[in-house]
Amino acid sequence: MPSDTHSKSNISEAKIPNPHPPTLPTKKIFIVVGARPNFMKAAPLYEAFKEYPDIQTSIIHTGQHYDAVMNKVFFDDLGLPKPDIYLGVGSGTHAQQTGAVMLEFEKILIDQRPDMVVVVGDVNSTIACALDASKLNIPVAHVEAGLRSFDRTMPEEINRLLTDQISAILFTTCEDADKNLSKEGIPSDKIHFVGNVMIDSLMKFIERAKQTDILSRLGMVSHAASDDLPDTHKPYALLTLHRPSNVDDKDTLEGILSALNLVSKRIPVLFPIHPRTLKQIRQFGFEDLIWHMDDPRGVLLDLSYQKVITMPPQSYLDFLNLMANSTLVLTDSGGIQEETTILGIPCITIRKNTERPITVTEGTNILVGSNPEKILSEAYTILDSGGKKGRLPKLWDGKAASRIVKIIADSLSP
Length: 414
Ligand code: UD1
Prior knowledge:
The chain is an alpha/beta fold and 414 residues long. The protein is built from 17 helices and 16 strands.
């Protein structure tokens, strides 16, 4: 039985038309995420779509990464909502993983027929979902298109090449990428140089990230002698390593870890470790080459550093904080090469090539491959002389997502 209040409000609503009727979404967009490096690219896009009430945006998570530390903590830090649809495919060989995503995502596409599928980056989930959508004639937008390492032994290079060929709209982070796409025959009217969505996230969250307590939890803060003076942090190097080319071959991994252990005699090397790398270290019997901390809280205060210090993968904000305060970063990740360029932190990339050459030509990045002597000598050079100073690449200004979303919205309007 409705109350009087309800009855009255119903009558008044009927008499006075709402001057601002809500816009009902008329278009439906899927944003696909699967693995850790996708989340910080999807978050600014999801946020920017909120400016377009006629577009309904859903997050589809393939489940390629599923551990809380690789997955949920990023949704929390980035303010991403729980995925609308979770496919739960998990790990496997490339064919198993790509195939499992395709089988599951196709069902959703047939059922829901979105107007566009947005994929980001170069992971197996990216190509799997792009393939599904394009075969159902649903346009695909690829964010971070055109990057090329020209190394087809990398699974990501295959994913990048194929995703770009079947995408209807291609968004690039740098002008090199536009050239790569043109050389591969992609018409120029499909290509839009918009900047870097990963940097949108970095710029949005960096100040909040610097407030996290990760440095004190790791014993990396020196407390000032008096209350008037600020605390300072101790110097350290930050390491990430997970590429199959570096961690799947026993001799290569042993050489890299041995070089890094020599670096750690001069400066502590903090290593939030990817699960596949920890698995490989255990399988090869290399536990004595690392100092593994499941919970490093407080333990490091008086450690004499002789080995790299591994710890579980860190959240987005804690990792940004660790990067921003480090003396030097050593990595084989793609995104970290870009983030260190923006933060002005010297970056040694433990790969022989990069799909992000702008981080070398304009940024703070140098490529050293996996040769132990080269890793060691470049690390020492940076410790002795401070390393490269870079400049900010064009359009890496924190506004890439709004440019992308405007172009997508225009392309969907009748
Ligand atoms: C994937 C991407 C890579 C990206 C990386 C970031 C591809 C081909 N590779 O590599 O480009 O740089 O993500 O992390 O898509 N595992 C877990 N828990 C998880 C996820 C993975 O334990 O939540 C372990 C499993 O043993 C799994 C292995 O890591 O087999 C590899 O995971 P997978 O998603 O196949 O590739 P990544 O190496 O993470």
